[in-house]
Write a structure and sequence with these properties.
Elements lengths: L2 H9 L9 H11 L20 E2 L1 H8 L3 H10 L6 E2 L4 E4 H10 L5 H6 L10 E8 L4 E3 H8 L7 E9 L2 H7 L3 H4 L9 E5 L2 E5 L1 H7 L5 H10 L20 H19 L8
Antiparallel strand pairs: 1-3, 2-3, 4-5, 4-6, 6-7, 7-8
């Protein structure tokens, strides 16, 4: 789901729905996009209102990724901008006016504004873990456990990504995956706000779909590599559950057997 979809689904819950503190933390993590942090502090308050800044500078100032700013320009929901021959620029005074227009004093005022997130075009998956060690989606957890005084929540994870290949997989859009040229290309995501880097295989290992046998053979035949390492030096296979490991082991054995004992050519 996108953050907006989560937001509106939450608003549709009955007012009497009991929600635990752990659920609230996961909800806040889902609706809050990780911020872009500038390597050098910008003295934004000292800038003249007529100063022009580029997209990267604005991105650092307000904590929005450049691709989101580009979409805002198309949708007309961001600060005013000046279109130049090869790029766009923002007037500091216009940015300050826009920030002021988005500043609210109450939730009522906030509800009157359109809900815009830096990650509105991304996939967000909040997962709640209970004492049975099984992962539950946020809304399944609320529905099943919130009426129980002892929910047994042991932790949560908020997975966020804007990578189109990863999003296609998580949405079960295998038609789109069939069109991806390099299934082992570098991918990025956030786990509880911390940046992670790896490949599609790492995401599959952590978020294995129930219909695994149906689509994985095709991806493996196209070169999907579970031996690739992530930013922590771990292979995708290191993070896989026993079901996926057993599947990959059996498939590897069958391929080795077929290679060693190829079928005999027909003599007819």
């Amino acid at each position: 789901m996108t953050p907006s979809e989560i937001f509106f689904k939450l608003k549709s819950l009955p007012a009497s729905t009991p929600i635990t503190a752990e659920h609230i933390i996961a909800i806040l993590g889902s609706l809050q996009a990780p911020q872009t942090v500038s390597a050098t502090a910008g003295a934004y308050s000292t800038w003249d209102n007529d100063k022009l800044i580029d997209t990267d500078t604005l991105s650092e100032w307000i904590g929005e990724i450049p691709s989101r700013l580009k979409k805002w320009r198309v949708d007309g929901v961001g600060p005013k901008f000046i279109s130049k021959a090869k790029h766009v620029a923002y007037r500091v005074g216009d940015v300050r006016d826009w920030i002021a227009s988005r500043t609210v004093q109450s939730t009522t005022q906030a509800d009157s504004l359109s809900f815009v997130s830096a990650f509105d075009g991304c996939f967000v998956e909040p997962t709640i873990y209970h004492d049975d060690q099984q992962p539950y989606s946020l809304f399944d957890s609320i529905e099943i456990f919130s009426g129980n005084q002892e929910t047994g929540i042991t932790g949560f994870e908020v997975f966020t990504t804007i990578d189109p290949t990863v999003i296609a997989y998580l949405k079960g859009d295998y038609a789109t995956l069939d069109k991806v040229a390099d299934l082992n290309a570098a991918a990025s995501w956030f786990t509880n706000g911390t940046a992670q880097h790896g490949t599609l295989a790492h995401v599959i290992a952590r978020h294995t779909a129930v219909d695994l046998p149906e689509w994985l053979p095709t991806l493996l035949d196209r070169g999907l590599n579970f031996s690739a390492t992530d930013s922590n030096g771990r292979t995708a296979l290191d993070g896989a559950d026993d079901h996926l490991k057993n599947y990959l082991t059996k498939r590897d054995m069958m391929l080795r057997f077929a290679e060693k004992f190829p079928p005999k050519a027909s003599t007819s």
